[in-house]
Amino acid sequence: MFEMIPFKNNDDSLSSINKGFNVDIHETDTAYLVEADLPGMKKENLNLSYKNGYLTITAKSQDTIEARDLLCVRYERHCTEFKRIFFINNIDKNNISAQFKNGVLKLVLPKKE
């Protein structure tokens, strides 16, 4: 029963440190509007899917390591992958639109009529 709560996030039990990126979801009469902050990500490293009422946003980045003659004292840049899953039912999946600009992903998920 609880898994059917609209906008239920599958990682609600995790701390905000582990959630990866911030997402806002707004509802209008005709659609759901989703905005996700993905700073530093490239469009080609994003994957979006909508299946069985679940919207999945996956973002993956991989730092390239250049051969250097310098000794690295500390290295914190690495491959990261973030995934957020939201239950948003009653969507016309054939008319979902997406835009990614300046590190912000904007989705329009039209409601079924």
UniProtKB/TrEMBL annotation:
PROSITE patterns xref list: SHSP (PS01031)
Keywords: Stress response
Annotated SHSP domain residues: 12-113
Protein's UniProt keywords contain Cell membrane: no
InterPro entries xref list: A-crystallin/Hsp20_dom, HSP20-like_chaperone, Small_HSP
Sequence similarity: Belongs to the small heat shock protein (HSP20) family.
UniProt-recorded name of the protein: Small heat shock protein
